[in-house]
Amino acid sequence: MKIRTFSLGNTRPVELGLTSTIFLTGFTGVILLPFYLYLFGAGVFWEYFGVLLCMMIVWSSVSFKLMRYARRGKDIMSLPGYFSYRFGGSLDYIRVFSAIEISILSVVIVSLLVKELGFIINMIFGYNQSVVTFVIIMILSLEVGLLGMIGITRTAPYKAVAILLILIIIDIYMYSSAGIGRLVRNMMEIDITGSVSDYMNVLFHDKKPLTVQDYISLISMGLLASGTPFFLSTFFTVRNARSIISGRRVMMLFAIMEFVAAAFFGAISRGYLFPERLTNSLSEYISLLYFRFRQSGSAGETVGVLLIIMIVLGFVVTIEGALHICIVCIYEDILNKGRLIRVSHKHEDRNIVICSVMTGLVIFLVNAYMQQLSINIVLVFIATLGCSIAPTVSMSLAWKRMNRFGCLAGLISGMVSVPVFKYAALFSLDEEKISLCDLLGVNSVIPSMVFTFLVIALVSLITPPPEEELVTTFINVRNRISE
Prior knowledge:
Layout: H1 3-8, H2 13-40, H3 45-72, H4 79-87, H5 93-125, H6 129-178, H7 180-190, H8 196-200, E1 204-205, E2 208-209, H9 212-220, H10 229-233, H11 241-273, H12 282-294, H13 298-336, H14 348-368, H15 375-398, H16 404-423, E3 427-429, E4 432-434, H17 436-440, H18 445-462, H19 468-478
Antiparallel strand pairs: 1-2, 3-4
């Protein structure tokens, strides 16, 4: 299998719609949405409204332009390849730097996800966590290395349907076995925000009425979808605009149905688990549900098995996508086009598998040296990647004056701004040192993206303009002269 087939495959509209969508909704929709609704209340709805809104914007605007760039530049297979073609230059430092950034952050994200999945399996079944994580990452590395994008796209529809059906089955089971009266009484006993009506009111979050800052923070989390390398790279695989239009319809239908089913799951799980105490541990929450199902007879045991299958699928689809783009960046953009090695096209399929296995081993080693971390750390790394990629890609598709220096500045500033704005205590409030995010009362997404946009604009304006040929290509792509 050649690297082009590995990277792009041959995506049909339904596969395109479900592959890119399930990558985003797998972990967030199946894992995080039910857990956060259980823990914080229905105000989390706004976070997933932001995800859906962002996905619709990307499909409506960014997707067509990325498709046209991929058709013009025949060797574009990843975002680093797109950056290289978009901004030109005799040295491919933008391609190499962006590939290194995407690879490192993707390795950390995959390591954290695999560690969390291994911890969940350890809590439920008692298997050794290190052995479980090694087996998981090696199986997925071999799968992605052997099958590439074709394997991901061909199986995505089945995984998407399985996840949605299991969500619906579990919802029906919890609702029918507990009954609406019991669920309501249990939620009132837990005293979620003072009353059941407050909990079900989408204007409440974490036991407090939502403020303007809360709306901004929750909805802005959805903006990270526009900076996901695998999500954006799927548009390089499309043949024409009609496929994007069809894929967008599939995306909207599936995403809405899954989010509704997952929201119902999280909302009633509190009442179903009563009188268990609330837990802010994702693994413990899933374990509590599993063992509660197991105590409910043969039907409950079946639902418990389905729950574990759904959780594994939710992790796997996200890990597969992140692992795929990581391998593409390492093999094509760093080693091959970065001129670090001379790639033999005669044995390219073997080389890709070796690269995939080596990447898996690196992920396992990173995993082994990580302590047990909260799921919020995963979100910080996802935010770091999103706030670096999203403004850079968006501005490169919207502003012809942007140049290679602005691109590099955007990649760097986006990566640095998230941890700085979130953790660096640079401000004083009531004699206490706090970070910018604490001062503004928002998460790091909005300030980081605004800062990145400003840096891109400033650096592009104070450095030489892009070559006329690049500007002409930009205008042609934007004006749809060429599909």
